[in-house]
């Protein structure tokens, strides 16, 4: 049996203060747990939300959750993975036993679990790992069900991104939005999440695929990733532009509109940009103070289709991660395009800054 070990990790010690690289203690894996040697971890908005106290007040947080690595050791009863396996981590290890799991919709599982034991600071203070992962660290402790084995030849910095933002975006298109061949899709907001929705739509054979953003750099990337049209919504009315591109008689919109910003005004654009029977998928994460925009109820009544939200792309890691890694390995999914830069564990604050200015799709910590 291995013992606990001390490694470096990035911790938000106090609300709204810069993060610190500190020593953290990783216990030996208990029943159902695994210790993973982290190789890469993307910087996501959610990490910043944790640092700002926007998720909860359970400081200190061990940040990082878009990770890939190698299983170092496993605890009793673990059969999913074994030491040496190359894995992508997920933040929703489903229980397999609740009502959602029983009815065959485990992505709605309400009994997801993480490691039972706690990682700590060297003084014994318990850490709250971001999304139950905490992977801005040389090693981390997770539930074995949070590990999904994928092709070990794949580049860690790229496939780790499937652990959160990229999966959310792809899944919003192919799982939640049920995008299929020939459907028209508009994606509002083409950051890491929206760009992934564009890839998902392209993989599914959608056409046209309309990218909407206020930043021309994002629109350029979107086109490289498969968008057939781009709309800069700071210059033109995106609803009119989408309707025009989709065609018909000018009165209808896209079959699927994906909102990947997480703001009321863009949700409203998405609402009106969809076809009468279209699907609106909200995947951008709103803040708790935001409300549904003021839309006449008659406009809701006057349309069929569906208003949906996509949580983690309604994904099943065991099904979706290996599939997407295979598509990446085959050259059909340019995951490398999402890795704007590789950084060190001490560069997280600079990465938050770049994220804030929209300079990156993803900064990825490589260990
Ligand atoms: N209209 C269109 N696009 C917009 C608008 C707007 N009004 N405001 C911002 N955007 C664009 C930005 O230019 C950027 O390209 O939305 C994109 C957001 O992308 P990122 O900041 O990279 O965020 P991402 O990681 O893609 O996450 C999307 O989900 O996790 C949440 O907080 C996150 O709200 C964000 C969303
Ligand atoms: Zn369940
Ligand atoms: Zn994330």
TrEMBL record:
It comes from the Bacteria. Its EC number is 1.1.1.306. One of its GO terms (biological process) is formaldehyde catabolic process. This is S-(Hydroxymethyl)mycothiol dehydrogenase. It comes from Aeromicrobium piscarium. Gene3D superfamilies: Medium-chain alcohol dehydrogenases, catalytic domain, NAD(P)-binding Rossmann-like Domain. Residues 192-327 form the Alcohol dehydrogenase-like C-terminal domain. GO terms for cellular component: cytosol. Its cofactor is Zn(2+). Keywords: Metal-binding, NAD, Oxidoreductase, Zinc. GO terms for molecular function: mycothiol-dependent formaldehyde dehydrogenase activity; S-(hydroxymethyl)glutathione dehydrogenase [NAD(P)+] activity; zinc ion binding.
